[in-house]
Design brief:
Blueprint lengths: L1 H11 L11 E3 L5 E2 L5 E2 L5 E3 L1 E2 L8 E6 L13 E5 L2 E4 L5 E3 L2 E4 L7 H10 L5 E9 L4 E6 L2 H7 L16 E10 L2 E5 L6 E4 H8 L5 H7 L7 E10 L2 E6 L1 H29 L17 H16 L6 H9 L5
Parallel strand pairs: 5-8, 10-12, 15-17
Antiparallel strand pairs: 1-4, 2-3, 6-7, 6-11, 7-10, 8-9, 11-12, 13-14, 13-16, 14-15, 16-17
Length: about 325
């Protein structure tokens, strides 16, 4: 009797997990949720749906974009929705599907950029992470878990107008393209700037062989360097190296030239058999064996003299002057 009473109470209580019938969803091909909520590459199939209340921020999910559910003109920015196997239980104890919402760009993003992002996220399983959960409204916000995709969506800093740049203004630019006549840099403006190959040749004081020469000079694609605005007219932004960079290049060239001159002098001295090593001025001069013997004899004569020898007395004796 007690068991029947417990079963009846559970059936009338929709908040009891024992009274909830499992709900299943079609997991995307290629990934499968395990009992530990990990993912492994197995053939997809029908999987048990998870409750919204059991999710945690940062939890990984696999989803597939829901077609014809995009809100690309939303005031707070374009967004798309994913089916990722999440639901909630209503007051009657029935399952309701909860779609995960993903923001794909800021509200000021260009429509062409938004369309390209949405297209890349359509028609394939996407790995997502739980960003926000609202049990009161039954909503779920997601973010891309892929580092590359997340970095792409975080490029939210708007580009400033290139016309606002003035000659001499210093910037940090990222090389985005190499050409036979120089490299184009992204300096955060709405127009790329050109660092002409002649500027590079002037800095290194040597010929730069097109793209190959630029890479050999350390100006490969993706590198970040400090530059200054050389000219900005007629929608053409020309860049140059900063004065600090030029000064450092001059110092390095002078040091290199000095080292080459020293190496050349040493090589020439070695060719003529000269010793280029300077003697220590504090070291005693070298003497021959004959000189050493003479100095030794002189030292012996000094040793025979008495320590109490009186120069004045010797002079008086020689002059016949007696002491008094």
């Amino acid at each position: 009797m007690e068991n029947r009473a417990e079963e009846a109470a559970a059936a009338t209580n929709p908040t009891s997990d024992d009274a909830i019938k499992p709900c299943y969803w079609r997991s995307p091909e290629g990934m499968c949720r395990t009992e530990t909520l990990d993912f492994r590459p197995v053939k997809g199939g029908w999987k048990q749906r998870l409750q919204l209340k059991d999710l945690a921020v940062g939890q990984k999910l696999i989803g597939e974009k829901i077609s014809n559910a995009d809100l690309l003109q939303a005031k707070k920015g374009p967004r798309i929705f994913y089916e990722c196997g999440i639901g909630r239980i209503d007051v009657k104890g029935n399952w309701q599907m909860v779609s995960g919402m993903l923001k794909v760009a800021k509200s000021y993003a260009k429509p062409s950029v938004v369309r390209k992002k949405v297209q890349r996220l359509t028609g394939k399983p996407v790995e997502l992470i739980v960003h926000k959960i609202s049990l009161a409204t039954g909503t779920l916000e997601l973010k891309l878990s892929s580092e590359e995709s997340r970095a792409e969506l975080e490029k939210e800093t708007p580009k400033f107008s290139a016309s606002s740049l003035i000659v001499g203004q210093e910037l940090v630019g990222k090389i985005v393209q190499l050409t036979p006549y120089g490299c184009f840099l992204d300096v955060g403006a709405n127009r790329k700037g050109l660092l002409h190959i002649q500027r590079v040749a002037d800095l290194f004081e040597r010929y730069i062989d097109k793209e190959k020469g630029l890479e050999e000079a350390g100006l490969e694609r993706g590198a970040s360097i400090r530059v200054a605005v050389k000219s900005n007219e007629k929608k053409r932004l020309f860049l140059d190296f900063t004065q600090e960079t030029k000064d450092m290049a001059v110092e390095e060239a002078a040091e290199k030239k000095h080292e080459e001159e020293e190496a050349a002098a040493a090589s020439a001295a070695a060719a003529f058999g000269l010793d280029t090593i300077e003697e220590d001025s504090t070291s005693p001069p070298e003497v021959s064996e004959d000189e050493a013997a003479m100095w030794a004899a002189y030292a012996d004569d000094d040793d025979d003299q008495s320590d109490d020898y009186d120069d004045d007395a010797d002079i008086e004796d020689s002059l016949g002057i007696g002491s008094y």
